[in-house]
Amino acid sequence: MNLKRIIYHLTALSLLVVVVAGYSCQKKDVISSDSSISLGFSNDSVIFDTVFSSLGSASRQLMVYNTSGNRVRISNIQLEQGSQSAYRLNIDGEASNNYNDLEIAGGDSAYIFVKVTIDPNDQNNPYVVEDQIRFLTNGNEQSVKLVAWGQNAHYILADQQVGGLPPFKVVADSLESIHWTNEKPYVVYGYAVIDSYGELIIEEGTRVHFHDKSGLWAYTDGVLKVYGTEENPVTFQGDRLEPYYADLPGQWDRIWLMEGRAGVNHEIHNAVIKNGFIGIQAESFLNATQNKVVLHNVTIQNMQGIGLFSRLFAIEGSNLVIGNCGGYAMALTMGGYYDFKHSSIGNYWNYSVRNTPSLFLNNFILDTLENVIPFHMDFTLSNSIIYGYNDDEFDTEMDGGADSLYFFDHCLLKTERETANGINYHNILNEDPLFLDPSINDYRIDTLSPAIGAGDPSISATIPFDILGNPRAESSDLGAFQFVPGQQEEER
Question: In 3D, which of 490, 409, 396 has the Cα closest to residue 455?
Answer without folding.
Answer: 409
